[in-house]
Structure formats: structure tokens, C-alpha cells
Amino acid sequence: MTRFLSDKNILDTIGRDSEAGFRMLLKDYKEAVYWHIRRITVAHHDAEDALQETFIRVFKNIDKFKKDMPLAAWIFRIATNEAIRQCQRHKKVAFSLDDEAQTEDAGRMIADEYFDYSDLEAVKLQKAIHKLPPKQQLAFNLRYYDEFDYATIARISDTSAASAKANYHAAKEKIIHYMNTHD
Description:
Shape: globular
CATH architecture of the largest domain: Orthogonal Bundle
CATH class of the largest domain: Mainly Alpha
Radius of gyration: 17 Å
Oligomer: single chain
CATH topology of the largest domain: Rna Polymerase Sigma Factor, Chain: A
Low-confidence stretches: 93-111
Strand content: under 5%
CATH superfamily of the largest domain: RNA polymerase sigma factor, region 2, helix turn helix motif
Number of domains: 2
Number of helices: 9
Mean pLDDT: 85
């Protein structure tokens, strides 16, 4: 996750001028949070809705943020919860790589103009990720795409660092197996 401003700078600015500070926070986090949510919800319109709700919650609750965790972990935890809520509204179900009967259904990913379907390996990877159990999917996405360490993943997913690491490695093995066995 590429960031340009420090959390301290953002929080100090919010303390002095909430509107300016929030604009800084949005500028620094919006794209990374959008793609995090998008990897969970799949559809652009669902990701947009969850993104909006995420930043509304962040803005309303910034005074409750405890500096014992990185700001990114707090924001991504809110974003994860919003993405899950969005999926539950539409009753989207996570698929399991262990259940071959769901293979065909998992291939019906929502197509829209925001995803490059010409990169077949990327499409295959996304199919594999979306077949993972939710905890493994979350751990994989946060580690692989957002490059969070296991301690931060644990904060975001409300688990232990050991669990985050185990979920990531289990996900990675399932994805490797899928990539090697599906054309």
C-alpha cells in the first residue's frame, strides 16, 4: 500500500481542521481502501457503496480512534466490516476451493468496465481467491495486495498474528494448487 502522508500529520490536521484533515485522509487512503473492498465485494457499485460507508464511519468515529494501532489497520478493519455488510445485503456467499461442486458458480464473477479481463492469469487468480473461505481470503488479500504484516492483519481481522499467518499460508497453498490444476 503506497501512502504519502504520515498518520500523525493526518491526525494532527484533523485535530486543527477536520475538513482539511479528512480530505488528506481520503487522498491518502481512498484508492487502497477501495481496492481492498473491491476484492471482497467484487462489483464496482458494491465497492463504491461500502467505500462511502467506510469513510462516513471513519469521519464520525475518528475521535474514538485509539493510537495503539496503526490508522491503516483501523480504517481497513472498518472497510472490511462494511464490505462484509455489503455482501450480506446481497447474500453473496464465499466459495471454498475444497468444494469442487461450486467451481462453476465461482466462475460467474461480475463483469464490469473496472476489471481487465484480458489478463487471463489475473482472472484465474481472482477466481481462486474468491473460492477461498472468508478468513483465508481476507488474510491473503491483506498480505499479497496491501502488503500488511501479520500483526496488522490480525488487528484488521480481529484474530491473532499466528492465525493470520496460518490463514495466509493455507490460502496461498490452495491458490497455487488451483492455478496449477485449472486451465
